[in-house]
Specification:
19 helices, single chain, 0% strand, mainly alpha
Length: 538
């Protein structure tokens, strides 16, 4: 547990710095290309999302689900896994190069299926930007392959800290674009070939640097990596069979996301659309990344080890403990974001009048925060046992619900029953509903497999956290109103929005922790442990 605590603290610190610099990166980007009612911003987000979609397939679909447990098992081999990992990296590099090349050849088609409802000029801009962005697939894949290997070897820090360099390089590039060409560049006709090239080199070059930094830490694995095209004999066939279900699952998620973007793009230039949804999702993922990934990643490595040993009791203990700790931190974060939703949304808009629209989209995503944290642990529990088929089944249900709710939103807009400006928020709310149903189904299936996962206990803990979160959020909203509310200084600029959000969030967290202290919540010990690691006593 001391090892897990140190790993979680290191990951939390790295993720926090990464996400803070990521927020600064987004603030600068919004200043350059806009957000709400900015056609150029929607085109860029479509182009830049394409490599991220492929990265999601590689990371969640194959690496996390399959490679980490396999590398953990390979460490028990006589050669400590050298042969397996060399063959795996050789195969992975070949696949990444081929995938990147095919994606670039298919760029116009990929943009069309995602952005086909947009005007021709806007689609052309997205295609031009996609040629610059799609090489990120190779660098994202390399970053994931090396990073997950480091994680499997319990070298957790570099994978989390490397994105900081990406954000710093991106910020510098965006500032240079603004200095050279002026801001904001919100309209399609403002993007000439040289401006497109500058933006493309900035975002893709930053990803390449991120991957390169991670490679510098490879010697710490003590593995001798060499090209090896003899892919038989070390269990890669088993990896392929396991990856089949996860690839299908990832492609289903990609298809659902493409349909969401296609429908949301109907509102481009008229209200919140693809760019606003992307920025709202970034805020949604901030507490998820800092808390779930920093705490859940070390637990997953330990859980995979216990599952490999067949120690089901310790696996159940890992599940219960990790869910309770994640829910404790995330419920406080959820209350803080709800209370500070308007000033937070101002950070991602160029005008104060756009903040309420963005806030509505963010609020629609938030109900899924706790369910997705539970899903993170439950899904990886199946992966630890080498079961990728069951996660495919409950993800199939989620994707079907996403498509159904998005289609419903589109029909309501077409019928005039839903304003076009509310389309993005309705799509986001449908995704939250789908994720919640997915989590309930996943918990039930894992409960059946392991003969119980302490569900009643951790649900009671979540209920206790909710009791503290509601008055804490109310107190935070009161602070926002004292600061002037929607007419106050917190919406004057992007930076004032960030400052106002920080003040409101601080008030919420103080009340939240105070109430839980009165309730003598045992999970506060995790907070004390984290504080001691971040601020060691003399």
């Amino acid at each position: 547990m001391n090892s897990l605590g140190r790993a979680s603290a290191l990951l939390a610190a790295g993720t926090m710095v990464s996400r803070i610099t990521g927020l600064l990166r987004t603030i600068v980007l919004v200043g350059v290309i806009g957000a709400n009612r900015a056609p150029a911003a929607d085109a860029f987000n479509i182009a830049n999302q394409l490599p991220n979609d492929v990265y999601a397939i590689i990371s969640a679909g194959v690496l996390t689900a399959v490679i980490v447990p396999q590398i953990v098992q390979a460490a028990t081999h006589a050669d400590r896994g050298n042969a397996f990992i060399s063959k795996l990296f050789t195969l992975g590099t070949v696949v990444l190069l081929i995938t990147t090349g095919l994606a670039m050849l298919a760029a116009p088609w990929l943009v069309w299926i995602t952005f086909g409802g947009a005007p021709a000029a806007q689609q052309a801009l997205a295609i031009a930007l996609s040629y610059w962005c799609l090489p990120q697939i190779f660098f994202y894949g390399l970053y994931s392959l090396v990073g997950e290997t480091l994680n499997a070897r319990r070298i957790f820090g570099p994978f989390t800290w490397a994105p900081v360099a990406n954000n710093v390089v991106s910020i510098a590039g965006f500032l240079a674009i603004g200095a050279m060409f002026g801001t904001p560049l919100e309209q399609v006709h403002q993007w000439t070939p040289d401006r497109i090239a500058w933006l493309g080199v900035t975002v893709t070059g930053a990803i390449a640097i991120q991957a390169g930094i991670l490679l510098a830490f490879w010697p710490r694995t003590r593995l001798r990596l060499r090209p090896d095209f003899r892919w038989r004999g070390v269990g890669l066939g088993n990896v392929g069979r396991m990856a089949g279900w996860t690839l299908l699952m990832a492609f289903m998620g990609l298809a659902a996301g493409i349909y969401q973007n296609y429908v949301a793009s109907l509102a481009s230039g008229s209200g919140p659309s693809v760019a606003v949804m992307s920025y709202a999702w970034l805020v949604f993922m901030l507490p998820y990344s800092i808390i779930v990934l920093s705490i859940g990643t070390p637990y997953f490595t330990q859980l995979a080890e216990h599952a490999h040993l067949g120690d089901h009791e310790r696996v159940r203990d890992d599940i219960v403990r990790s869910i309770r700790i994640l829910a404790f931190f995330l419920m406080g974060a959820l209350a803080a974001v709800v209370a500070a939703v308007v000033p937070t949304s101002r950070v991602f808009t160029t005008a104060r009048t756009d903040a309420p629209d963005t806030a509505l989209v963010l609020l629609a995503y938030l109900p899924a925060l706790i369910p997705l944290a539970v899903l993170f642990i439950v899904q990886r529990s199946f992966y630890a046992y080498g079961d990728t088929r069951t996660p495919f089944l409950f993800t199939l249900v989620q994707c079907a619900l996403i498509v159904a709710t998005t289609f419903t939103a589109q029909m309501l807009v077409s019928a005039g029953a839903l304003p076009l400006g509310a389309l993005a928020a309705t799509i986001a709310l449908g995704q939250s509903l789908a994720s919640t149903v997915q989590t309930v189904l996943a918990v039930w299936l894992l409960h059946r497999r392991l003969g119980g996962i302490g569900t009643a206990g951790w649900l009671l803990s979540i209920g206790r956290f909710a009791i503290a979160a509601v008055p804490a959020a109310a107190a935070g909203w009161g602070v926002f109103l004292l600061l002037g509310g929607s007419a106050g200084w917190t919406l004057a600029s992007q930076l004032s929005g960030a400052l106002g959000a920080a003040i409101v969030a601080a008030a919420v967290l103080l009340v939240y922790v105070g109430i839980l202290a009165l309730l003598r919540a045992p999970e506060l010990d995790a907070l004390k442990s984290l504080v001691r690691r971040v601020v060691p006593s003399r």
